[in-house]
């Protein structure tokens, strides 16, 4: 049995990098409660806010801040400007962050570093190399991020959210590459298991009842900030959606976009349509996923992990300006498995394509169930536990 360790987690400055770390942290504490956990992140970004928030709790209702100590850096991303002064500033701040991260690793006697990428992870990985501390890189997307690619050579293990990068084995000196899938929190998994209104045939499979008269539940979301382009596309086909007696719709517009959307497209009446509920933001996304059949959403790594875990058939609208177009690559990975549909935002018939895809899925329940089956085949509900085992077992 692996002994308890002092472990540093790193990744930021977006929820997509942070929440997978928290899922792994929870699994580590479940396996080895005496482990000491630290989070190296940007002192002014989301990770600092989340890790100092006593209301952010895991599946056991424990505040993450009770068992993870936050350690702040002032890292910054690689500049896009060709101005040499910008690069000099970057190099200076990067080296300063490496030195501070190195101090954190020494002072807290860190045994292992686990990181999901993002620019703040770079100094932590560099510090691990300088102090000869083994580190695991978990690459969330179907494309390898810049920080991960730069430091992957010396990683003790490279773990993958998508199978598409398994050919990177030759780039990792240790040769250890594992497709674990992306970790979803135990809270999400438990809500899916307990709140689903669909027929359950054993974890992780969740299939819609074969009842052609049952209403299809559609979830629309552009993420925590919302997506103006998705909102506008939905508004343009809303009369057809609202007239469809086979649909119940929940649309999460994003908090900053909500008021304008309701005023512009619903005549100021959020309850204008009986089968269409529009909300600004929710902390109940697991519950919404548990009870949805189809989702219109972006294709970030964690959104995909949640769709797969809950077997909600996704119609992906990749974020067009995501770095290296990684959201398209993420979505394509599921499209290749017949588990998802992808529509490009720059498609001239963007909104009509959404309507056509919805009508096809609603009218063909066998296809909908087939795609749910494919999602179930791809599900890796034990990803967090598997990653925790790798972290705790690393020597």
Structural topology:
Blueprint: E1 6-10, H1 15-31, E2 36-42, H2 46-51, H3 64-67, E3 68-73, H4 84-107, E4 112-115, H5 121-130, E5 135-139, H6 146-151, E6 157-160, E7 177-179, H7 186-195, E8 199-200, E9 206-207, E10 216-221, H8 228-242, E11 247-252, H9 255-265, E12 276-279, H10 285-290, E13 294-297, H11 301-310, E14 313-316, H12 326-335, E15 341-342, H13 350-363, H14 365-378, H15 383-393
Parallel strand pairs: 1-2, 1-4, 2-3, 4-5, 5-6, 6-7, 10-11, 10-13, 11-12, 13-14, 14-15
Antiparallel strand pairs: 8-9
CATH class of the largest domain: Alpha Beta
Mind telling me the CATH superfamily name of the largest domain? Glycogen Phosphorylase B
Overall number of strands: 15
Secondary-structure-based class equals alpha/beta
Low-confidence runs of at least 5 consecutive residues: 198-205
**Percent in helix:** 40-55%
CATH fold description of the largest domain: Rossmann fold
Largest sheet: 7 strands, parallel
| Oligomerization state | single chain
Number of helices: 15
Could you describe the 3D structure shown?
The chain is an alpha/beta fold and 395 residues long. The chain has 2 domains: 6-182 and 381-393, Glycogen Phosphorylase B (Rossmann fold, 3-Layer(aba) Sandwich), CATH 3.40.50.2000; 186-378, Glycogen Phosphorylase B (Rossmann fold), CATH 3.40.50.2000. Helix content is 43%, strand content 16%. It has 15 helices and 15 strands. The chain has helices spanning 15-31, 46-51, 64-67, 84-107, 121-130, 146-151, 186-195, 228-242, 255-265, 285-290, 301-310, 326-335, 350-363, 365-378, 383-393, and strands spanning 6-10, 36-42, 68-73, 112-115, 135-139, 157-160, 177-179, 199-200, 206-207, 216-221, 247-252, 276-279, 294-297, 313-316, 341-342. The protein has a 7-stranded parallel sheet, sandwiched between helices. The radius of gyration is 22 Å and the shape is globular. Residues 198-205 have low confidence and may be disordered.
């Amino acid at each position: 049995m692996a002994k308890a360790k002092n472990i540093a987690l790193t990744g930021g400055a977006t929820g997509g990098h942070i929440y997978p770390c928290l899922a792994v942290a929870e699994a580590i504490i479940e396996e080895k409660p005496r482990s000491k956990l630290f989070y190296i992140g940007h002192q002014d970004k989301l990770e600092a806010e989340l890790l100092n928030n006593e209301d952010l709790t895991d599946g056991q209702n424990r505040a993450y801040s009770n068992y993870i100590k936050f350690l702040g850096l002032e890292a910054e991303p690689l500049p896009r400007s060709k101005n040499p002064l910008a690069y000099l500033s970057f190099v200076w701040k990067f080296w300063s962050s490496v030195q501070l991260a190195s101090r954190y690793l020494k002072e807290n006697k860190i045994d292992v570093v686990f990181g999901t990428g993002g620019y703040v992870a770079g100094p932590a990985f560099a510090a691990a190399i300088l102090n000869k501390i083994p580190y695991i890189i978990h690459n969330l997307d179907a494309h390898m991020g810049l920080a991960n690619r730069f430091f992957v050579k010396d990683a003790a293990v490279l773990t993958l959210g998508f199978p598409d990068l398994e050919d990177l084995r030759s780039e990792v000196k240790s040769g250890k590459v594992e497709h674990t899938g992306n970790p979803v929190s135990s809270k999400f998994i438990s809500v899916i298991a307990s709140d689903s209104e669909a027929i359950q045939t054993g974890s992780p499979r969740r299939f819609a009842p074969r009842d052609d008269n049952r209403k299809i539940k559609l979830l629309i979301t552009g993420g925590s900030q919302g997506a103006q382009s998705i909102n506008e596309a939905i508004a343009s086909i809303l009369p057809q959606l609202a007239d469809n007696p086979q649909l119940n719709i929940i649309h999460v517009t994003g908090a900053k976009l909500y008021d304008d959307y309701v005023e512009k497209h619903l005549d100021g009446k959020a309850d204008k349509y009986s089968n269409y509920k529009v909300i600004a933001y929710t902390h109940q996304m697991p519950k919404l996923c548990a009870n949805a059949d189809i989702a219109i959403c972006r294709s970030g790594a964690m959104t995909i992990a949640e769709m797969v875990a809950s077997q909600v058939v996704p119609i992906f609208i990749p974020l067009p300006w995501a770095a290296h177009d990684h959201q398209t690559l993420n979505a394509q990975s599921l499209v290749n498995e017949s588990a998802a549909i992808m529509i490009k935002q720059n498609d001239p018939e963007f909104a009509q394509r959404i309507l056509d895809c919805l009508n096809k899925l609603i009218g063909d329940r066998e296809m909908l169930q087939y795609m749910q089956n494919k999602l179930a085949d791809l599900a890796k509900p034990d990803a967090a536990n598997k990653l925790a085992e790798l972290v705790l077992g690393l020597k």
